[in-house]
Amino acid sequence: MGKVGVALAAACAAAACVTAAVMVSRRMKRRRGWRKVVTVLEDLEEGCATPVGRLRQVVDAMAVEMHAGLASEGGSKLKMLLTYVHNLPTGMEKGIYYALDLDDTNFRVLRVKLGGQRSTILDHDVERQPIPQHLMTSTTEELFDFIATKLKDFVERQENVSEFSVEETRELGFTFSFPVKQNSSSTGTLLKCTKGFSIEDMVGRDVSQCLQEAMSRNGLNMRVAALVNDTVGTLALGHYHDQDTVASVIFGTGTNACYLERADAIIKCQGLLSTSGGMVVNMEWGNFWSSHLPRTSYDVDLDCESPNPNDQGFEKMISGMYLGDIVRRVVLRMSQESDVFGPVSSRLLVPFILRTPMIAAMHDDDSPNLMEVARILRDTLQIPDVPLNVRKLVVKVCDVVTRRAARLAAAGIVGILKKIGRDRNGGTASSSKAKGGSQSKMRRTVVAVEGGLYTNYTMFREYLNEAMGEILGEDVAEHVVIRDMDDGSGIGAALLAASHSASLAIDNI
Ligand code: BGC
Q1: Ligand 1 pocket mutation, candidates 189, 190, 194, 321, criterion most atoms within 8 A of CB
Q2: At what angle do helices 388-419 and 356-363 cross, to 10 degrees?
Q3: What's the EC number here (predicted)?
Q4: Integer angstrom CA distances of residue 79 from 207, 256, 268, 286
């Protein structure tokens, strides 16, 4: 080999060495990047851990806070609001009633025809309307005028001439899914805005009166016969179908629960309730807090950057409005700490861009290549070409965040059962011992549930049910039924309007 040949061979060898070195260094960088994201995931798992022992602490804390909230006004972060609903619908309600179900982004108008015999809802029509974006931050009058005109259109489309005479006043159940301090079963003032709702001039005003005035302004002859939280509507429909229903929970954009309480346990208003046996209490559990809740730095940041810091802490770990954003924050951290997602996408910096239905779709993706995950990362977050192992990582993040939410939700439900003595075999009603048998029989307990998070997100539902079994033990859990109550908040409000107008009629005889 000549000098030239030797030089060429040396140059080739050097180039090969450089290429190999570059490849090794790239591989090492990739490994370091991968190790970093795995560390982020492991920290998340540790921070979100909900072993059954911790869930039981949450159960106890929930029951303790319920007692405190019932003992005095402001005694707990749980407001334990009175609803003045003493009796739930019996099934004997009869006639045509309307409902308006308002949450932060939509409202639904309903017309319900009741047959007067147990569980006969002869007919019901629903229309869903989005609230235009600008009205969600406008004034009370503008919002209610818009709603009243839509309600009027709905009434005119639905009614036969023979059903109501011109002067006849129609009865309406108004579902208003925010914390309201009620003065009666049909009136109450808004305490604060939650979720995405921010019509500040409504706070402190009687929402029922505001709607009533808007209906008059718009020529609609209708009376607000019942003002109810969505939990209370759901409980009413649950109880209408099944009298063992004692509580209800909403898992939607927000979360909350209500239940039937003994009047003598509501210490903060003993005098007021002396004639009645019980009352439905709207817990406003979204604001529950306990040091036993597993909180991560993502939760802290989400809370600080929210319009209501230090508020609705339980809701921010559980409900549909927030789960997607917790996942977004974790993926952002992963992307900032490594290049497994490529360059950091500016979309990852946009709050609430990753919505909970998207994390449900990624979590439930059972295609072998996780095509739905790839699609959402590409279309929503503008992160293209994500390798399969990284897509699996994203699914795992969804899993950790949702599993924590569902297990905490289960602990909340068991907290209610504990407060009313339905969390163990002691919760006996018709004990067969009393009837001469030897074994005590656990009372059947039904909890009505409404909301897309529970209905549409399979893994959330499964984790919740699994945790109920773990906390209660299977022998007790088999007597606790979680029942999906589709449209409960709206239909239930119509039922309450019916039962309230029936009791008013009796009072007036
Ligand atoms: C509200 C509750 C409501 C729940 C579910 C919460 O943000 O404060 O009143 O029941 O959302 O809609």
Answers
A1: 194
A2: 110
A3: 2.7.1.-
A4: 18, 11, 11, 10
Three-class SS state of 147: helix
Q: What is the pLDDT of residue 161?
A: 58
pLDDT at 239: 93
Ligand 1 atom nearest to 178, measured from its CA: 9
- 108-165 pLDDT tens trace: 999 999 988 765 777 788 999 999 988 888 899 999 999 999 999 999 888 775 666 6
pLDDT digits (tens, 9 = 90+) for 352-404: 999 999 999 999 999 999 999 999 999 999 999 999 999 999 999 999 999 99
Q: Which residue has the tokens 């239940």?
A: 259
Q: Encoding tokens for residue 382?
A: 């503008």
Give the pLDDT score at 106: 86
Query: Which ranges of 182-292 would DSSP assign to H, the alpha helix?
Result: 207-217, 230-241
Three-state secondary structure call for residue 352: coil
Helix axes 388-419, 3-47, angle to 10 degrees: 10
- For residue 12, the SS3 value is helix
Helix boundaries (H) for 341-433: 356-363, 371-379, 388-419
- Tokens for 173, please give them: 């159940």
For residue 342, what pLDDT is reported? 94
400: which 2 tokens? Answer: 């950790």
Catalytically active residues are: 108, 177, 230
- The CA distances from residue 222 to 89, 142, 207, 403, 491, in Å, are 21, 19, 15, 44, 17
**Which residues does a 6 A CB cutoff place in the pocket of ligand 1?**
103, 177-179, 194-195, 229-231, 250, 252, 254-256, 284, 286, 315
The Cα 310–Cα 110 span in angstroms is: 36
Distance between first and last Cα of the chain: 120
Query: Looking at residue 132, what DSSP letter applies?
Result: P
Asked if pLDDT for residue 192 goes beyond 60, the answer is: yes
Res. 471: pLDDT tops 80: yes
